[in-house]
Each structure stands twice: as C-alpha cells, then as structure tokens.
Amino acid sequence: MNQELLLGLYVLILTIFLGFEVISRVPSLLHTPLMSGTNAIHGIVLLGGILVAGTADRPILYLLGFLGCALGAGNLFGGLVVTDRMLEMFKPRPAEKPAGEPAPVGAGVQAVREKEPVRKP
C-alpha cells in the first residue's frame, strides 16, 4: 500500500472516533445551536469535494469527490433546515385561547353577526 494512502486512512479513522466522542458528549440543549454554527464547515467540505472532483485524474478520486459533494451538500442543507426550525421556535405565536377554556357568553352570536350581511328594514 502507498504510504500516503495509509496515512490518510489513519487520519480518517481517528477523526471518526474523535467526532463520535465529541458529538456524544454535547447536551441535547446545545445540539441545535451548534448544528447551525457548523454550516460554514459543511460549506468548506462541499468546496473541497468540488475541488477534488474537478481535478480528478483517476476514477477513485472522482468518486471520492462526488461522495464528498453529496454528503457535504446533505449536511449543509440539513443544517439550514434545522436552523430554520430552531429560529421558528422564537417567533411569537398568534393569541389562541386554551383548549379547555369556555368561550365568553355571546361570542358565537357575535361571530355569526359578523359573517352575515347587515339587513336594513
């Protein structure tokens, strides 16, 4: 085996273990804000995949570049969706009455009056 390939595999395996350990120790409360903060890193992964695929002279390099682009794009857009959902939680909701609370007296009559046209005698 090529020494460079062996070193690359070694670094890949170490980063997989390191990433798993770091992510597993993040509290669930912090996971979403950290996910939104790592979108820039996913953009760099996508750019790296484009560069590898664009300069590939062997099929394996083209495959790795394509795989990097696909996985980087999935992570990038998934992170953006999660960030959008997180920010949606902080928007004010329209005022709704609680489910168990009875409607005020005459509220139904007022709603019907607003929908009907006004008739003049």
UniProtKB/TrEMBL annotation:
Alphabetized UniProt keyword annotations: Cell inner membrane, Cell membrane, Membrane, NAD, NADP, Translocase, Transmembrane, Transmembrane helix
Region (Disordered): 93-121
Membrane topology: Multi-pass membrane protein
Reaction catalysed by this enzyme: NAD(+) + NADPH + H(+)(in) = NADH + NADP(+) + H(+)(out)
Gene Ontology MF term list: NADP binding; proton-translocating NAD(P)+ transhydrogenase activity
Segments passing through the bilayer: 6-24, 36-54, 60-83
Name of the protein this chain belongs to: proton-translocating NAD(P)(+) transhydrogenase
Protein's job: The transhydrogenation between NADH and NADP is coupled to respiration and ATP hydrolysis and functions as a proton pump across the membrane.
Subcellular location: Cell inner membrane
UniProt keyword Transmembrane, yes or no: yes
Signal peptide: none
EC class of the enzyme, as a word: translocase
Entry superkingdom: Bacteria
Domain NAD(P) transhydrogenase alpha subunit C-terminal positions: 9-91
GO CC terms in record: plasma membrane
E.C. numbers: 7.1.1.1
BP GO annotations: NADPH regeneration
